[in-house]
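seq as requested:
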Amino acid sequence: MNKKLFFLGLIGLLFFEILNVYFIMPMPGSQKMGSIDMAYFLYTWRWIFRILFSIMILYGLIKSGWKYRRFPLALTGLLILAVYFLNFKMAADHMFHEPKKLTMVTSASNKVDPQRLVIGVVSDGMSKAYPIQYLGFHHQVADTLAGHPILVTYCTVCRSGRVFEPIVNGRYEKFRLVGMDHFNAMFEDASTHSWWRQATGEAIAGKLKGQKLNEVLSSQTSLEEWLRLNPNSLVMQADPAYADSYDSTFKYESGKSKGKLTGTDSLPWKNKSWVVAVRSGSSSKAYDWNQLKTKRMIRDKIENTFVLIVLGSDEQSFFAFDVPSNDDKASLQNDTLFYNTIAYRLDGSGIGTDRQLKRLPVYQEFWHSWHTFHPGVMGH
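struct tokens:
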């Protein structure tokens, strides 16, 4: 009986640790299951399970009267190695780290290739740019802009860049990467240990389930275009501690990656196809990226909002605007947008005028990500 207890504890602990990782990491079948509640239950009660199974193992080891103790001790040792590997090698926050040192410099001191993609933010006349090359590894960068805290996030498996206010119930909150759900990065807050989805900023498990972080309007552009539009912007630089971990190629950003999770399908409306998605209030719509590259300007209507999407000549930088009508005259010449005879920069700021087009949140994303988290949205 005691030997059975030993083996039950051994198998039970190993099976638990595997499931604890399986549900929140990109393993075969794990990301297509609606298993977030089970994953959170296992994670929340992990120490209870570990203590219970450990007691079974120790009791069986001591009371069984093994003739050859090396055998159960060897099995226990192998289990300890497996538990260590699962928790310290395969855990998300041990694979991808936050910056140890965040360095922001002016364009004059910048060392980032100007052709790199960035997630850019502007507030109260101040602007900052965060290269996707670095965000893709860190997943999140906590910073401040114009005196306000921001959380800049990116998920390479969804190709989704988002910036949020890390304020929960009126207080600044710290987050850590805990895993992923439906192939999207998932963060855990330090106060309540609730889990938050990167693509939407919504808490999907835990005490705060259903709450949402306020999103900060951001842009995805080439660094060159960003600095042309925001010459006084600060630019995030590489953290020397993780210099060898950053993507040194342009394969991911250009869509040439062959990775199973990060590769791109060149055909439209496939899981790994790129879309440009626009959000207006509670409504949204996705468009084929190839169509935008061909036309460079798309006009449409989302509910009651007339939408204008433009793509820069670099075929990387894009913006979307809420415009009065689809009948107004609009044209794009190089990177100057003419709307009703008034000239605007690519970001909608007037040239020689204080007028500015109303920006809308717009993202470049894998189709599987957008339609998973925005069900019912039809591509155009």
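The radius of gyration is 24 Å.
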